[in-house]
């Protein structure tokens, strides 16, 4: 029995030590990645506004605001959310659900869209908001061949959902939610940053501007 007690004590000690090491390592990784993503986003939107302000919501989340933004934007808000890497079980659950770091872009546009839509991935953390918004607007959601669910009022909106996604270029495959509405923010884009290296990422600003242009284009 004494041997079993010693083995149990050693196992508890090793598990506790491993947990602490994971916690410290995950925190450090998140801090470095948050800083890297923050710098990347700042560079990408810098050409679209003279007044940029960034604030850290937590050690792993930031909000970048571009007031007095240049066309086609009136104002831009970008929020980066990093997944929890400090807790191994939460991290593993996110891996199983194919979830990771997110970038949420909310844009007020200089011209108002004359139609609206919601496009989203069912597994996304943003899916519930998209569904509720679509239901409130009286839109029925349908899954497309690309796996993305779409909800809109028909007509021009139905025809334009593919154009909007295509306008995101290399980021189309990373779309978790894409919404266009008449009220502010007129454009919402939620992108998965899972596996994305800011140092090698394609230019983001130009693709966001392209999406905004499609959103306000005439039917």
Word description of this protein:
By secondary structure, the protein is an alpha+beta fold. The chain has one domain. The protein has helices at residues 2-45, 88-96, 127-137, 156-167, 205-216; strands spanning 49-58, 61-69, 73-81, 102-109, 117-120, 142-143, 149-152, 175-180, 187-192. A nine-stranded antiparallel sheet has the order 1-2-3-4-9-8-5-7-6, sandwiched between helices. A hairpin with a 3-residue loop joins β2 and β3 (73-81). 31% of the residues are buried.
Largest pleated sheet: 9 strands, antiparallel
Helix-strand makeup class:
alpha+beta
The side-by-side strand order for the widest beta sheet comes to 1-2-3-4-9-8-5-7-6
User: What is the chains' assembly state?
Assistant: single chain
Give helix and strand order, one letter per element, not per position.
Answer: HEEEHEEHEEHEEH
Mean of residue pLDDT values: 82
Count of the separate structural domains? 1
List low-pLDDT spans. none
Keywords, separated by commas or semicolons:
219 residues, alpha+beta, single chain, 9-stranded antiparallel sheet, 5 helices
